[in-house]
Amino acid sequence: MKNTNPISLTQFLIEEQRAHGTLNAELRLLLEVVARACKRISIAVSKGALGGVLGDAGTGNIQGEAQKKLDVLSNEILLQANEWGGHLAGMASEEMDHPSCIPGEYPQGGYLLLFDPLDGSSNIDVNISVGTIFSVLRAADDADPSTDEAFLQPGTQQVAAGYTVYGPSTLLVLTVGRGVHVFTLDREQGSFVLTQRDVKIPVKTREFSINASNARHWEAPVKRYIDECLAGKEGPRGDDFNMRWVASMVADVHRIITRGGVFMYPLDAKTQKQGGKLRLMYEANPMSFIVEQAGGAASTGRARILDLVPEKLHQRVPVIMGSREEVERVVGYHAQA
Ligand code: AHG
Ligand code: MN
Ligand code: MN
């Protein structure tokens, strides 16, 4: 049934500010501006071929990946939206070599914003869900926000994190450190509306998410975990497991937040040299913060992701996240090995 008294993102944030003091006016402005930028990205994504946004940009990022037009456009939209409000000291993005400073004509604020402007780029041209991931840190008083070093804070320092999914509907999933809340974009009103408060990842799960084409490269603990899942009712887990891999982290993790499971992009022989596939600052940290706030766990297999002290802005890490018991099992297999 249609909700006749919808709570908008603005109302939610103001009430959160009033009741719990988990955010101040500056952080609230920041989150609203990010949400507004994501609305613009959502509109661009939904236009598809009609908007001329599909295909390659013809450029590459610092990580040697070919950029899609939408990677570049989404990055631009987030930069433009966030530079004038006075809430930020700087921004860092998966698509930029180094942080972007706030132009001199605008005041500087106390926060740092990091983002993966468009997650799941390989899905853009095939009309499958993509999203945006963001993380908010406080800028240290003595830090120079034009340097990579200013951003190198462990995930435990995040004051907010969120992701959007541009799918059949556009969702914004947000935490300010007091649970995880889901907002759905009401396209007629042009606003994000609270549709789920304080979501919790189901504990009991029989679903895993991994790119199985890498199986031959996996380390023994991951191979053991997946083999046991695949063995089904007759195997050591005594149950049949299901597998899903969208190849957009936002979509895969959102499914897990909704109905449980474990998402893995583990260390493997292919990605060992670079430390993993997913980016710590733009993907692993914000998604780990959200997963933990939803009652789940997130690990590299050897350490809690949020405790990692970043060494490089574009650092990559192995990621195992989702339902707590399953993550703990995989971590246990790593310890035994
Ligand atoms: P991005 O599009 O921001 O580069 O991220 C893609 C990531 C992540 O979303 C996804 O889980 C993974 O890469 C997919 O990797 P494979 O293509 O190796 O499956
Ligand atoms: Mn990504
Ligand atoms: Mn991306």
Low-confidence stretches: none
Largest sheet: 8 strands, mixed
The global form is globular
Q: In sequence order, what are the helices and strands, one letter per element?
A: HHEEHEEEEEEEEEHEHEEHEEEH
Folded structure, characterized:
There is one protein chain. The chain is of the alpha+beta class. The chain folds into 2 domains: 9-196, Fructose-1,6-Bisphosphatase, subunit A, domain 1 (Fructose-1,6-Bisphosphatase, Chain A, domain 1, 2-Layer Sandwich); 207-336, D-Maltodextrin-Binding Protein, domain 2 (3-Layer(aba) Sandwich), CATH 3.40.190. It is built from 7 helices and 17 strands. The protein has helices at 9-20, 25-47, 69-83, 220-230, 249-259, 280-293, 324-336, and strands at residues 56-60, 66-68, 88-93, 100-101, 111-119, 130-138, 160-166, 170-175, 181-186, 191-196, 207-209, 242-243, 262-265, 278-279, 297-299, 316-317, 319-322. Strands 4-3-5-6-7-8-9-10 form an 8-stranded mixed sheet, with helices on both faces. A hairpin with a 5-residue loop joins strand 1 (56-60) and strand 2. Helix 2 (25-47) packs antiparallel against helix 3 and helix 4 packs across helix 7. The longest helix has 23 residues, at 25-47. The chain is globular. It binds 2,5-anhydro-1,6-di-O-phosphono-D-glucitol and manganese (II) ion (MN) (2 copies). Residues 116, 119, 249, 283 line the site of one manganese (II) ion.
